[in-house]
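Hey,
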Amino acid sequence: MKKADVELGAVVNAKSEEELKKQFQGTVEKIYENSALLAITSFDDVDAAAVSDLNYKLVVNFKNMKPARASKRAKALSTNNVTIEKMAPTMKADDKDKKEKKAPAKKSK
């Protein structure tokens, strides 16, 4: 690929000359003069330890990238780590003040 073909957020297939054994898929996060920083989103099981060591990011030369197609044997990485939980309703500060004012004060002896 050429620099002009690469856009931020684009998904590309890439290969690493040194770090990873198999081709992987990544999202372009930053573009440099001759390369781009990719967030690795899909990779082969053989490279799982190496990808983890790289914190799921790798700088790759443009010549080692091509437009993405879905890989058959690749391990997909979940990029959405959001969990949703229900929370109990809480008393508003105004309601709390009103409740304290309404409660009869206890007399101390």
